[in-house]
Amino acid sequence: MEAETYAFQAEINQLLSLIIHTFYSKKEVFLRELISNASDALDRATARDTLKIQILANSDSSTLTIIDSGIGMTKSDLVNNLGNIAQSGSRRCIEETGTSLIGQFGVGFYSAFLVADKITVHTKHARDVAYTWESTASGSFTISQFQGELTQGTRVILHLKEDQLTFLDARVLSDLVKKNSEYVQYPIYQWENDTWQHLNPQEPVWLRPRESVTDADHAAFYQSFARDWEPPTAYTHLSVEGAVTFKGVLYIPKRPPPGMFEHENRSKNGIKLYVRRIFVTDQCESIVPEYLSFLSGVIDCEDLPLNVSRESIQQSTVICTIRKHIVKKALEMFDTLALGHADVYRTFYSTYSKSIKLGIHEDSQNRQRLVNLLRYQTNKSDWSSLHEIKSRMSTHETRLNYIAGESYAAVSQSPCIESLIAHETEVIFMCDPIDEFAMQQISDYDGVPLVSATKSSHDTEALSPSQRRLCSAIKDALGNGVHEVKVSTKLVQSPCAVVSSEHGWSANMDRIMRAQALNTNQHQHLATKKVFEINTTHSIITDIEQHVIDKKSIADTVQLLYSTALVMSGFAIEQPAEFGRHIFQLIATS
Predict the structure, then answer these.
(1) What residue numbers bound the domain in which 302 lies?
(2) In degrees rounded to 5, what are phi and psi of residue 117?
(3) How far apart are the C-alpha atoms of 44 and 65, rounded to whole Å?
(4) Whether residue 193 is found in the same domain as residue 232
(5) Given 154, 178, 198, which residue is the final one in a domain?
(6) Over the stretch 471-520, which tens digit does the pLDDT of each residue have?
């Protein structure tokens, strides 16, 4: 049979340009595509005993051959499959819909022209003789009957361009297979050192029955694909069938990735996305919410096209469905640790508590589940959930009290909790800056209000005329530096404290916001309105009250007292030089 020439009905160069620039960002992807095609051919083969893929590099002829023992192609298949993508209707369809044909044999096959200037295909189908297909992407292809013996299957021979000969290197090919095609279900062999090397001996753990996969199997698999020297803290399987079908496995690494919350690393996460066991990307930022970006794992989906751009993947409804299932399974994994593995959960929480609190701030749908995962130190316990703290409330208590600050030493010694401690009320200590942001989304726990001990409240007692005069005199001495002066119900030992207005920032939040490098004052309406609370039973305050009665100046004493209270309450001193002057004056007169 003489070679028959077939003309492409659309300009192949334009089509290749469209495919390459729209769907492929790296030339190396050709090997992934050809292996995927070979795997598809093996799926459809009727004889199941010798299914395999082989890669053969020949530096003498500058050719790279991919061989499969799959179903092979008839002459009609060659015309339709290897010519179909170049027909004008297909080209127009790609231009209009972007991905409707992605995943068909032709698209992936033509990625080979990224590295080859000629492609030769030898193929044998059980119902036909063997044929040779050949093209230089110049607008036509030829088909002729193969001369010689050929077993069932297909051989794709790439005549590499001069600047692409690096793909003949055995190490380069091996690394590409391990990166993109390691988990293809059929064995892949590479000819090296006069023998065939098996490149993908490891069976994907997510495809095996979960009861047959041991902890050691998971540790070995995780350390291999995540390039981690430690086993994971925990893992869970995913298996979803329905409108979207996918399998996978999720791992919690012992430690978070470097720069996890830095903006430039947002597109990088530990979730590797596969389509029918072929690696697609590990830069699909929409596959997990930011607070779960520390997770590592594999998602193997049946319903995504292989040849799709990263940008298109981000908007895929399939990815949205996968994301929901990942979040659900991750939270189930955290719950399991919290309820049944206390020591492991404590280590996990110390490592990833910021992530949980970020989730509380951002994920309204799963907020309550995340709140249940919180653990805090209190004046009565060094490790408690909100549920446990609530269960210890006495019958007369009506709220959960907390105090946020820079450190345990700062919050545990704050004058704002003196009365609570004196009455043996449990106080939650929050020493992580992100606690303040999380608490903005939590007004109560199981119906019990969460109240900051550093906020001013309405539960003040009725003031006597002398107390009203005292508060008024102190307010006059402080001027606009303070919003209000009140007689405190919080203080027992300290003479005074500075608290925040009920709806303003706490002292800790004020400190955090002032420290923001790009603070533009756009939230000034939330800026702290300071309330100066005084303990009228303290000797210092009674002495000031006597000065008011005797109509003596209290300005310097009140200013010094207020500045000292600012420091003790966690605020920054607004006029440090003035504070220093008062201290020096006090020392000089003592």
Answers:
(1) 205-342
(2) -100, -5
(3) 21
(4) no
(5) 198
(6) 999 999 999 889 899 999 899 999 999 998 877 787 788 777 777 655 55
Tokens of 320: 């949205």
Separation between Cα atoms, residue 532 and residue 481, nearest integer Å: 10
Amino acid at 171: R
Give bridge partners of residue 66 from the DSSP assignment.
55, 156
Tokens describing residue 176: 């590409």
Q: Please identify which residue in the block is written with the tokens 């492609």.
A: 119
* Domain tally, the chain: 4
pLDDT digits (tens, 9 = 90+) for 425-483: 999 999 998 998 899 899 999 999 999 999 887 655 678 899 999 999 999 999 988 98
Print burial letters for 80-91: b (CB count within 10 Å at least 16), e (below 16).
ebbbebbbeebb
Could you tell me if 153 and 211 lie in one domain? Answer: no
DSSP strand pairing (53-58 vs 63-68) = antiparallel
Q: Give yes or no: residues 162 and 230 share one domain.
A: no
Could you give the count of Cα atoms lying within 13 Å of 122 in the half-sphere of its Cβ? 14
Residues 10 and 150 placed together within one structural domain of the fold: yes
Residue 357 covered by a domain? no
- Going 21 to 25 to 27 to 32, the CA torsion angle's sign is negative
Q: Is residue 179 domain-shared with residue 227, that is, in the same domain?
A: no
Question: pTM for the whole thing?
Answer: 0.78
